[in-house]
Amino acid sequence: MAFARGIFGIEYDPEPEAKRPSGLWIVVGAVIAVAAVSLAVTVVSRVKGRIDERREAEAMAEEAKKAALATLPEPAKTAEKPEEKIEVATPEKRPAKAQSLLMRLDEAEKSRDLVLIVTTIEQLRALPGKPLADIDDSLARRLGALNVQWLFEYSNAQWVKRVKVKAGDSATRIAREHGSTLASFVKLNPGIDAGRLKIGMEVGVMNHPRLNLVVSARARTADLHLNGKFFKRYNLAIGTSAKPGAYEVGASPKKSLGECGVVVGNADERSELESLLPRGSSITVSDM
Q1: Looking at the domain that runs over 211-286, which CATH code has it been given?
Q2: What pLDDT digit, counting tens, does each position of 227-259 carry?
Q3: How far is CA 225 from the centre of its chain?
Q4: 8-22 b/e (C-beta count within 10 Å ≥ 16 → b)
Q5: pLDDT per residue over 44-101, tens digit each?
Q6: What's the rounded Cα separation, in Å, for the pair 20 and 165?
Q7: Do the first three CATH levels of 160-208 and 211-286 match, i.e. the same topology?
Q8: How far apart are CA 108 and CA 102, in angstroms?
Q9: 40: which strand partners?
Q10: Where along the chain do its domains lie?
């Protein structure tokens, strides 16, 4: 039992002074509470930071995946009409081999596998008996668009050779030594000034291409073949006036095409064709 001085004099104190919490313990308790809160805030902040870092990493990975997909070639478009996806329906009358290749082409288009698309279209067009004659033109145009991309954007090694510029070299000389054209050399090296080549610089050039343009007077088309394989189909603005037979491209591809009555309807494709044909290339005119 203890007594203490109160407002009304001496009063009874149920809790002895020795048992009362001193000011020091109150301060210590407050410090501990503040430290606990601070620690909790720090832990929460770190956890939140790790979650944010993980989300950011996942977002960056997703963006990288999208960027990688974006580097694959899209179906090319012409000025005449938009590129249409090849109809790969498989009627029951088509041979089993054709149906199988069409399904493979559909999967390759979905995955945007350039090499598989090209090889599958080539196999479809080579099927005996021409079971896909109804869609052959679409297949040819899709293949042509991809071949041009493969040549000029991806420098396909089967057509393009990488060489180092030597002393005395010029763009014209390199193109001529490899049986190519200056115009195709310039298109293969878009980031290089063809008039200012430096010794040791690596450039791409078509490696002795064997080009043959097969002109169909009746269909008003011109199929370009590169090294014995179909490369691209061009539409003619008018029917050729040249007699059926074989012709040779001279120093000026534009003049040689004009003499054979070959006028490509699309201006960009006309320029493209002229840039591809080196001197000595052949033009075959058919009345079919």
Answers
A1: 2.40.440.10
A2: 999 999 999 998 887 899 999 999 999 999 999
A3: 24
A4: eeeeeeeeeeeeeee
A5: 566 566 666 566 655 554 554 444 444 444 444 434 444 555 655 555 678 999 999 9
A6: 95
A7: no
A8: 10
A9: none
A10: 160-208, 211-286
Q: Are 61 and 69 in contact (CB under 8 A)?
A: no
Element (H, E) at 220: none
Question: E-assigned strands of the chain?
Answer: 2-6, 9-13, 160-164, 202-206, 211-216, 221-226, 229-235, 245-248, 282-286
Using CA atoms, how far apart are residues 274 and 215, in angstroms rounded to an integer? 15
Which SS3 state, helix, strand or coil, does residue 102 take?
helix
Count Cβ atoms below 10 Å from residue 211 Cβ, excluding itself. Answer: 23
Half-sphere exposure of 230 toward its Cβ, with a 13 Å CA cutoff?
24
Distance CA 254, CA 260 (A): 10
Among residues of the chain, what percentage have pLDDT more than 70?
A: 68
> 3-state class of 96 per DSSP?
helix
Nearest alpha carbon to residue 102 among 136, 150, 149, 144 = 136
Predicted confidence at residue 242, as pLDDT, reads 85
Helices (H), 112-181: 114-125, 136-152, 171-177
Residue 221 β-bridge partners? 216, 235
Are 159 and 151 within 8 A, CB to CB? Answer: yes
Structure tokens at 271: 């320029």
Looking at residue 85, the DSSP 8-state letter turns out to be P
Strand partners, 11: 4
**Six-digit token string for 107:** 């999967």
Beta bridge pairs of residue 201? none
* Architecture label for domain 160-208: Roll (3.10)
53 burial (CB, 10 Å; 0-12 / 13-18 / 19+) is exposed
Structure-block tokens of residue 224? 């370009």
